[in-house]
UniProtKB/TrEMBL annotation:
<dbReference type="Pfam" id="PF10531">
    <property type="entry name" value="SLBB"/>
</dbReference>
<dbReference type="Pfam" id="PF02563">
    <property type="entry name" value="Poly_export"/>
</dbReference>
<dbReference type="InterPro" id="IPR049712">
    <property type="entry name" value="Poly_export"/>
</dbReference>
<dbReference type="InterPro" id="IPR019554">
    <property type="entry name" value="Soluble_ligand-bd"/>
</dbReference>
<keyword id="KW-0732">Signal</keyword>
<dbReference type="InterPro" id="IPR003715">
    <property type="entry name" value="Poly_export_N"/>
</dbReference>
<protein>
    <submittedName>
        <fullName>Polysaccharide export protein</fullName>
    </submittedName>
</protein>
<feature type="domain" description="Polysaccharide export protein N-terminal">
    <location>
        <begin position="25"/>
        <end position="99"/>
    </location>
</feature>
<feature type="domain" description="Soluble ligand binding">
    <location>
        <begin position="105"/>
        <end position="151"/>
    </location>
</feature>
<feature type="signal peptide">
    <location>
        <begin position="1"/>
        <end position="23"/>
    </location>
</feature>
Length: 177
């Protein structure tokens, strides 16, 4: 009975983790600094193991020429590749587009090691501050701001439990005392 309970709990945990991973990637838009992988089943020449997306967001793809990945979801890019390959090149292409590396987040201000850090799904402000070595002695725990990537707005004041998105800039201000 204990073995069954352990197995059931483990199965539920794994399904929850995979659901969150899929949900995150399904609405995530590709941006400059991301790394993607394109796999076409049975077509080694059409598969790309690692592709870095630069500021233009464009890349050359066999037979289809220049494609743009910028501000598209992996599903949208996958459909564009399928539609381009279907008919003239392949009868029924099976394509998978995956994000294998996210663009960096940046932590500035009163932290021990300010700079850029690799984004990880589920990252929060307090975890990002920990990546940057923690607060300095002069840091204010209540004056923490995020400037979101791709938005013209200035900084938004946030709690330490706030989620961080790829490309975000976290700024920790000084306290007066």
């Amino acid at each position: 009975m204990a073995r069954f309970f352990t197995f059931t709990t483990l199965l539920m945990l794994l399904s929850t983790i995979s659901f969150h991973s899929v949900a995150f990637n399904s609405d995530y838009t590709i941006g400059a600094g991301d790394k993607i992988q394109i796999a076409v089943y049975g077509e080694e020449d059409l598969s790309i193991d690692e592709l870095y997306i630069d500021n233009s967001g464009k890349f050359d793809y066999p037979y289809l020429g220049q494609l743009s990945a910028l501000n598209k979801t992996t599903e949208q890019l996958k459909e564009e590749i399928i539609n381009g390959l279907k008919g003239d090149y392949l009868i029924s292409p099976k394509v998978r587009v995956s994000i294998i590396g996210f663009r960096s987040i940046y932590v500035n201000g009163e932290v021990k090691k300010p700079g850029g850090y690799e984004y990880q799904p589920g990252l929060t402000v307090d975890k990002a501050i920990a990546l940057a070595g923690g607060f300095t002695d002069r840091a204010s725990r209540s004056k923490v701001y995020i400037a979101q990537a791709g938005k013209d707005e200035l900084k938004n004041k946030v709690k330490l439990s706030a989620t961080v998105s790829p490309g975000d800039i976290i700024v920790i201000e000084q306290s007066f005392f």
